[in-house]
Write a structure and sequence with these properties.
By secondary structure, the chain is α/β, with parallel strands linked by helices. The chain is built from 11 helices and 14 strands. It is 30% helix and 16% strand. The strands form 4 sheets. An 8-stranded parallel barrel has the order 3-4-5-10-11-12-13-14. The protein has a two-stranded antiparallel sheet with strand order 1-2. A two-stranded parallel sheet has the order 6-9. It starts with 7 loop residues before the first strand and ends in a 27-residue tail after the last helix.
């Protein structure tokens, strides 16, 4: 019987096990240059026993930043800083993909360089607030991307993917979930366009498909993954025709032969859709399952029964740097200090003990 502790061949990248670390924003990059610091290097190196690490969301272009102190992959300085991270993970036998995350309308001008403003498929503001260094502020109305700017955004993902490979990453994950730019195009509530990028299901999936195609062409499909979260309402997403959208999206990207699909399950009631997506995708299938509490050892059965090839763990990886060993032993687990999840210094970041 296959278990989560067995090795796995991810489109040619050999993983030591089938336990993946979820992408989780921690807001500890250098604010001025948006580069990972030496503490960030230590954080990822500590977690190198994961079969696959997927980094926190990394903005592919400057206007893609949605939160304070998040890192980018659009400058030479950022490439050099990320190289320290990837080298440290590889020295400990780990594998690491960079998650490319353009936040779109989620963000605020105060988080961006002068003259930049959040963008989106349409000039529709999200309800809610975002944290800035001056405290919470309401989301602003984004600037609707012109047709040329949509193509520029696609090119920005491809350029960042090339930078990721130069920085030593084993591949990239395209963030198409959680209410950020790609899902903003997928969702009718945030996409009111009447051109080729909006309206019909075929048009609303076009941006996601073009980003995946551009990244796969730039660095190879074997180094490309996509994350989705069907029916996710995070960041004021209002999605219609969910099953039709995501089955059409998979049909469009399947011929590209990308390495994996990463599904964030929004509720246990969505498991039938998870099974359907699994059947329709030939590559590796990663699942961040919906559970009552943090995903723990009980979820490993989803690898054993074939629901997923890899199980993705989030919060437990924050407080347990050696999570695979703890899952094998079924605990004990360090308790998470939620107050230190975002921003701050080494406390609650690299000071959680291993077994």
């Amino acid at each position: 019987m296959t278990t989560a502790f067995d090795p796995f061949d991810l489109a040619g990248t050999r993983l030591a096990n089938r336990i993946a670390m979820a992408p989780m924003t921690r807001s500890r990059a250098d604010g001025a240059s948006r580069t990972p610091t030496d503490t960030v290097v230590e954080y990822y190196a500590q977690r190198a026993s994961a079969g696959l690490i997927i980094t926190e969301g990394v903005q592919p272009v400057p206007e893609g930043q949605g939160y304070p102190d998040t890192p980018g992959l659009h400058s030479r300085e950022q490439i050099a800083a990320w190289r320290k991270v990837t080298d440290a993970v590889h020295e400990r036998g780990g594998r690491i993909f960079a998650q490319l995350m353009h936040s779109g309308r989620i963000g605020h001008p105060d988080l961006l360089d002068d003259g930049l403003h959040p963008v989106g498929p349409s000039a529709v503001a999200a309800a809610g607030q975002v944290y800035t260094h001056e405290g919470p502020k309401d989301f602003v109305t984004p600037r609707a991307l012109t047709g040329d700017q949509v193509h520029e955004a696609v090119a920005g993902f491809a350029a960042a993917a090339r930078n990721a490979v130069e920085a030593g990453f084993d591949g990239v994950e395209i963030h198409g979930a959680n209410g950020y730019l790609i899902q903003q195009f997928l969702a009718s509530g945030s996409n009111h366009r009447t051109d080729e990028w909006g309206g019909s299901v075929e048009n609303r999936i076009r941006f996601a498909v073009e980003v995946v195609r551009a990244v796969a062409a730039e660095i190879g499909p074997d180094r490309t993954g996509l994350r989705i979260s069907p029916a996710n309402t995070l960041n004021d997403i209002a999605e219609t025709e969910t099953e039709e959208i995501y089955t059409a999206l998979l049909a469009a990207i399947e011929p590209l032969g990308i390495a994996y699909l990463h599904v964030l399950e929004t509720s246990p009631e969505r498991r039938p859709l998870v099974h359907e997506l699994r059947k329709r995708f030939a590559g590796a299938f990663l699942l961040n399952p919906a559970t009552e509490g943090p995903t723990d050892a009980a979820a490993l059965a989803l690898v054993e029964d074939g629901t997923a090839d890899l199980l993705v763990f989030g919060r437990l990886f924050i407080s347990n740097p050696d999570l695979p060993a703890r899952l094998r032993a079924d605990g004990p687990y360090n308790e998470l200090d939620a107050a230190t999840m975002y921003g701050g210094d080494h406390r609650g970041y690299v000071d959680y003990p291993a077994l």
